[in-house]
Amino acid sequence: MDKKNSVKKFSKKLPSVSKSFPLALNNLPPDAQSFIDSPFDRQCWLAGIIHGGMSRTEALEKVCETLLVSESTAKRWLSGRAQPHPCAVLYLLAHYRGVPPGKDWTGWRFVGNALVSPNGESITPEIHRRLYWLTNEIRIMRDETGTARAKVRMLESIGAADRLDKVRLASKLLSEVMSVGV
């Protein structure tokens, strides 16, 4: 039996990743199941780990670096001679779906164009834009409040009582706006 046929025979004996690690891969959304069913080199490409402009050596180095595996392991996975470890596939799936790995992100997921928290709150791009705008407005108001306080101190030091009352009122109004829970 030649080497080419023995590789084909060997790879036919390999179980699919979803069969070798069923508990972690139950009830996956269709896009994730399609990802899991793809060959490992395609999973790496979909996850953005490797791309068409890379040489084989660069791709191999990137897979080793990203998944913390030896060169021989990465070669076996990329060639299809061995199934990748299910944890490596889940890590690539997280990259593919855009959810960073880590305990702070446990339970977060994407649904359509919204990032959904573990308790079901959605953050859409529109909400993100509004939060950014509000954060910027708060920063501007804090700057203006600081400027108004500096003017109050300056007016107090020169004894300009008529202007001082107006500046104090403006400073008070800005402080009240800042205290509103945004």
UniProtKB/TrEMBL annotation:
<dbReference type="Pfam" id="PF12375">
    <property type="entry name" value="DUF3653"/>
</dbReference>
<protein>
    <recommendedName>
        <fullName>Transcriptional regulator</fullName>
    </recommendedName>
</protein>
<dbReference type="InterPro" id="IPR021077">
    <property type="entry name" value="Phage_phi-Lf_Orf112"/>
</dbReference>
